[in-house]
Amino acid sequence: TTTTTTAAGTTTTTAAATTTTTAAATTTTTTATTTTTTAAATCYTSSNYAHVQAGRAHDGMGYALANGSNANMGLDNLYYTTTLKMTGTNYYVIGTCP
After folding, report:
1. Domain residues for 8?
2. Residues 73 and 89 in one domain
3. DSSP code for 52
4. pTM of structure
5. DSSP H or E stretch at residue 48
6. How many other C-beta atoms lie within 10 A of the C-beta of residue 75?
7. pLDDT by residue for the chain (98 residues), tens digit each?
8. Are residues 88 and 59 in the same domain?
9. Would you say 48 and 59 are in contact if contact means Cβ atoms under 8 Å apart?
10. Residue 1: C-alpha distances to residues 4, 11, 36, 83 (Å)
């Protein structure tokens, strides 16, 4: 069994089994391949104000908080810039993207 994962989030698992019997002329070959692809994370870099206006964050007492994780991004204004990574449906974390 071989498992390979790429940076884009594609996982491929390959399993192979081979049985060969010469005297009885029996040959059994089984090969199975499974490929699972997940979308790469989507990242947004913008002012905290723009994140709130776009619905990626919300305002809490003058601070921008990332939706889902509630991570404090700093003041909710045009002068603070943050990179948000979407890791799930309406779930954002502060982070960097490749």
Report:
1. 2-37
2. yes
3. H
4. 0.62
5. helix 48-54
6. 13
7. 444 444 455 555 556 666 666 665 676 667 777 766 666 789 999 999 999 999 999 999 999 999 999 999 999 999 999 999 999 999 999 998 87
8. yes
9. no
10. 10, 13, 15, 38
Q: Which is nearest to 59 in space by CA: 42, 80, 73?
A: 73
3-state SS, one letter per residue, for 53-77: HHCCEEEECCEEEECECCCEEEECC
32 and 47, same domain (yes or no): no
**Lookup: tokens for 31:** 């090969």
Q: Are residue 53 and residue 31 in the same domain, yes or no?
A: no
Q: Is 82 exposed, middle or buried (0-12, 13-18, 19+ CB in 10 A)?
A: buried
Is the separation of the CB atoms in 92 and 68 below 8 Å? Answer: yes
**Residue 73: both structure tokens together:** 């991004």
Q: How many domains does the chain have?
A: 2
Q: Are residues 25 and 47 in the same domain?
A: no
- What is the distance, to the nearest Å, from the Cα of residue 79 to the centroid of all Cα atoms in its chain? 28
